[in-house]
DNA sequence: CATGAATGAGGCTTCATTCAT
DNA sequence: TATGAATGAAGCCTCATTCAT
């Protein structure tokens, strides 16, 4: 009702998205999600009748929407495909540095837990499609292949960044996009 | 003791490596590991006094050794860096197709569970170093950068292959290594 | 208020009577009752301030009234005690066949849940008394004993019918009433 | 191992049989069963991997065996069918008086909870068969019909005894067996 | 009067681990 | 050494009920 205070459902979804991303679906208890959201025990099943699995689906949808927004915010002011790629990688590097739950690759969260593979792939394809659309708009001659290449590198780099506890791998992605020797 | 029949400890480690890779550390119960290994309930703590965490460390070490062997087997008969890369990607694609637990990216398993980040990175660095050594031997002018690029792409491609339920992404990696436009 | 459309209270009572009879008081949740009645979550406590226990009392009263009506409908057109008994047993057999919730013996429902034993016995005595009155009117020489005998057999036969998934036991009651050898 | 101290499994089964008979399957919590058996929380699933439903099956089997023993003990010393019937009813009346959990009709317990109908009927048929065998041995001319009649009356009488809080109904069964006018 | 949201106690079950044999 | 039994904390979920609107 109140547009300013987030609803209980939204708080649960946000808390779940954060926790599942860092600790995984099985590594996160619903009690933790409720505590993170600041809600009492019984309030989960009112908003998510299917329980934890429902929560995972909502969290994945939220993460997917956020990712689409981040891609949009990175590419919209860009003046060239390369500029957009650089902006996106830098955004991810800063998220990695500043927000603990962004240290885990958001794509991995889609593949853990009860989200069926088809839904996970649909989310991933949405990100690829959004990226390709921006690349196309900016004049990239092969937007689909470039988007796929970019995301392949991003996922791998994110995993390496996490293992190294350093966002350097994410910042190295633009150079890897430009040349075969980087 | 018997060098031909796998010992109980080895069977536990192998079962754990398989299960942790697919379902994650928190998604796998010790009961499942014991069932997969075909061993009785009480036998875990004889071989792994620290319990599940011990098992995770042993499983990671086993997976790491296997990966080093796979890299070696791919690069040793290779006649050029590109040939080695192609052989490695094809090996991974076939593992993905033929063995269910290889559908999950083996690097991800290092980042779940109680393995400390330093150990996970050490395993990953070992794979990078082994790959770089082979590339160097085969005459690659920038073996470290190429190894890093290869593994970044492999990790990303593996994740995409899993989401798509198709090893095509892994087979596309060699082309991505060669040119900035692939 | 509307005499033609059943009120919310009546729909709740009927739903509860049906469900408690089949699944028992503890086996039925208030959410199920509300769903069966097609009413929203919050509406129970407007009609039954004491909640589930209140509902159980109303359901028992409703079942008791229905039973008295069934006994009346069976015996009123009867031309002899035996005819009335036969009609009553046949009615029960048909209810058993046609309405799922009549597969469970209605007397059992009185003994589960928060209905105090005195109330349960009062309902049962009312059925016995109604039956005895009809038998007396039809000229039975020992109406009380015959009513008691009839209901003892009916309760047992109903239980057997349910276990056998066959109303035959109910249809066998009239013969058991007539002779010691049936 | 020790033949004198009942095993944990036996204590659980006995506790469950008692509690399910009085309070019903849904009205009894596993915590209550464990408390009644004097065992800690985790010990149920070691002996009954399927949990509460398994416990219900074991409890029904135990109750069924006990009933067969009671029937045997009543009829073996009997000198005639009528004598056996009288002894059985008196035994049940005394159980009703002396042991709280025998106030509930043991047949009803078979029809509550997860025991499938076929199993419930099998138990009931076993009691009928045991009773008929004894009646036959004692010279009853129609043992099957008489056994069926006896159990129909017993089940009904037990229910009435419970409602009345008085075992009189059970003690009235022999007379009902003998004559159509009782 | 009517209702969706909220609430926390308690339900059943699984867990990793320890113990007695 | 090897193992089935034991253990209780913690897991997810359902429950009957109350409340704010």
Automatic annotation (TrEMBL), chains A, B, C, D:
PANTHER family registered for this protein in UniProt: HTH-TYPE TRANSCRIPTIONAL REGULATOR LMRA, TRANSCRIPTIONAL REGULATORY PROTEIN
Residue ranges flagged as DNA-binding region: 29-48
Superkingdom to which the source organism belongs: Bacteria
Pfam family, one: TetR_N
SUPFAM superfamilies xrefs: Homeodomain-like, Tetracyclin repressor-like, C-terminal domain
Organism of provenance: Jannaschia ovalis
Protein name stated in the entry: Helix-turn-helix domain containing protein
Transmembrane residue ranges: none
Keywords: DNA-binding, Transcription, Transcription regulation
Domain HTH tetR-type: 6-66
rRNA processing among keywords: no
């Amino acid at each position: 009702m109140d547009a300013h205070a987030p609803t209980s459902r939204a708080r649960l979804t946000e808390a779940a998205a954060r926790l599942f991303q860092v600790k995984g679906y099985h590594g996160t208890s619903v009690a933790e999600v409720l505590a993170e959201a600041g809600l009492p025990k019984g309030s989960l099943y009112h908003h998510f009748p299917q329980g934890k699995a429902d929560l995972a689906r909502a969290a994945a949808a939220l993460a997917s929407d956020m990712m689409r927004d981040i891609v949009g915010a990175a590419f919209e002011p860009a003046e060239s495909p390369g500029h957009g790629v650089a902006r996106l990688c830098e955004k991810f590097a800063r998220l990695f540095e500043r927000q603990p739950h962004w240290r885990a690759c958001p794509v991995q969260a889609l593949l853990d837990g009860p989200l069926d593979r088809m839904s996970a792939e649909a989310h991933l394809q949405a990100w690829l499609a959004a990226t390709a659309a921006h690349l196309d708009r900016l004049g990239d001659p092969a937007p689909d292949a470039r988007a796929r290449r970019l995301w392949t590198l991003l996922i791998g780099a994110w995993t390496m960044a996490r293992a190294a506890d350093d966002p350097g791998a994410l910042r190295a992605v633009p150079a890897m996009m430009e040349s075969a020797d980087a």
